[in-house]
Amino acid sequence: MFVFSVFSGTGAKIVAISDRHGAFYNKNGIDIEAALKHAQKARSLEGYTGGDQISNEELLTLEVDVLVPAALENVITSKNAGKIRAKIICEGANGPTTAGADSILDEKGVFVIPDILANAGGVTVSYFEWVQDRGGYFWTEETVNDRLNDIMCKSFDAVFQLSRQHKVNMRTAAYMLSISRVATVHRLRGIYA
Q: Of 84, 108, 109, 118, which sits with the fewest C-beta atoms within 10 Å of its C-beta?
């Protein structure tokens, strides 16, 4: 899990990180390279000295711009959602927010980028690999990243526009869009095509 306190056009300052053993906070920013080296050597963040140790629960409630739950499901629940002070939650993990928490976050005005949108990059790149293998022509990393960026930005924009149009949260808009696209394909191609 990562927590961003300052998010600008030039990047973000990551002020907290965690793993299953606990979390670390540094208001001046976590040295990510040092944290990664420590985690590779120790096989966890346990003993990391680049920040103050806090609990994973405390990490979730830090006053930050962006919270990225990126490992476990059901970490944001109806029990802790009311305490979350992040302005944006970008779900990197599958199902990190329970349905009960979702409605609490929505009422609080927290902008949630749902898992089915936020972490769709891996599936998209898998599709790119399939396309390349089928064609026997392989793209450069730059081409893959450019095409991924294009698809992810267009997907975000489509969900965001639907969210605003129907006055629903991003998760509901993502579901609406996906169901609409599946229905359109079935209508055009039939169930067995």
A: 109
